[in-house]
Amino acid sequence: MTTTSSEAGAGTLLRDWRERRGLSQLQLALGADSSARHISFVETGRARPGQDLLLRLAEHLDIPVRERNSLLLAAGYAPHYAETPLDDPSLDALRAGMEQLLAAHDPYPALIVDGTYRVLAANRGIALLLEDVDPALLTQPMNAMRITLHPGGLAPRIRNLRQWRSHLLEQMERQIALVRSEPLRALYQEVRAYPTSAEDEVQDASALFPFALPLLFERDGRVLSFLSTISTFNTPMDVTVSELAIETFLPADPETASYLREVLP
């Protein structure tokens, strides 16, 4: 069972992250300007680490920003990183920049999600794909994973559903291994339980695009092919910003690009 910051002290959490990264106490100490002896004392609870040391260790271990706050709290310190609501005026420039990115990507689909795949913004290309989705899935807060994999969502129109579903579940598994998020774990259990059948895999995309797995989506009697990319912010200093992701879908063939330019001029 995975421990949480409320159950484990800072030493236990630190040891967990060090082992995840495959580092010895000596390697971690050298990277964070400390000593293996002191790291050992911190992990066993014999020494209380200073806040600056914890931040250096977290940086060297590449711990997610939210989890860095948890590590500090477990050691008795206040959180170091703010968690600013996305609609806060201080993030006006950030929101404007993201909206420009979405608009610039039109007519190709693009959206912005948070750490639990809640849809925060989307462009016209995404709206086009959602036209036949069950309205219940489009009520706020919309969730990208739920919309994609639910039988009332995009799933019936994804030609390589089993491949795409496997890709998305593996993506969530990697994220769960990095962050202790009960909402994310609950979402994973939910979407993994959605019914599937052998008939779901209408088309195998592996041979069509051997360099990257595409999303094959049926619309208007034709199959649209997309390659997905995900962008995050470099060195975020805020929990909210650290969990934002911009997902863009690029046409994988000229026919898809031409079709989208035609229906979304």
Concise synopsis of the structure shown:
By secondary structure, this protein is α+β, with helices and mostly antiparallel strands.
Task: Tell me what you see in this structure.
By secondary structure, this protein is of the alpha+beta class. 43% of the residues lie in helices and 11% in strands. Strand 1 and strand 2 form a beta hairpin. 29% of the residues are buried.
Q: Count of DSSP E strands? A: 5
Spatial order of the strands forming the largest sheet:
2-1-5-4-3
Strand portion:
5-15%
Q: Extract low-pLDDT stretches.
A: 1-7
Rounded to the nearest angstrom, the radius of gyration is 22 Å
What is the overall pLDDT average? 91
| Total count of helical runs of at least 4 residues | 12
Secondary-structure map:
Layout: H1 10-20, H2 25-31, H3 36-43, H4 51-60, H5 65-74, H6 92-105, E1 110-113, E2 119-122, H7 124-129, H8 144-149, H9 161-178, H10 182-192, E3 215-219, E4 222-231, H11 239-242, E5 245-251, H12 254-263
Antiparallel strand pairs: 1-2, 1-5, 3-4, 4-5
